[in-house]
Amino acid sequence: MGIKNLATNRKASHEYFLFERFEAGLVLQGSEIKSIRAGQISLSEAFIRVDSHEAWLMDAHIAPYEQANRFNHDPKRPRRLLLHRKEIRELWDTVRQKGVTVVPIRVYLKNGRAKLEIAVAKGKKLHDKREAIARRDAEREMDRETKR
Question: Which CATH class is domain 3-147?
């Protein structure tokens, strides 16, 4: 069946240095998966909260499903992530370090199931962002010159 991307967090690679990546399942209600399959999800303000035993997706906006009427879901409710115990323990140990967090990267369908790609990240400083933009511009300029 393959993989179908539904939503990406484009700000994540600009705001953070991304290190180790994990694939997590999502615990969803019926109306939420219908809405996700329709592409009605936003990860722009979302973050991952990790405690010693569980990981949660916080502030991800999944729009209410129109046909769900009174059985609809709360758009910003916390959603539990399905990870192996060893992965949660590893995330918990890294998050306790100063300046390290876990951010959602993208939501996709894999064999009909919604999956979330998360990454261990460290925040970029302003000069790091400027340096990345300058490097990208220089590469673009070199590509233009080589095409001529």
Answer: mainly beta
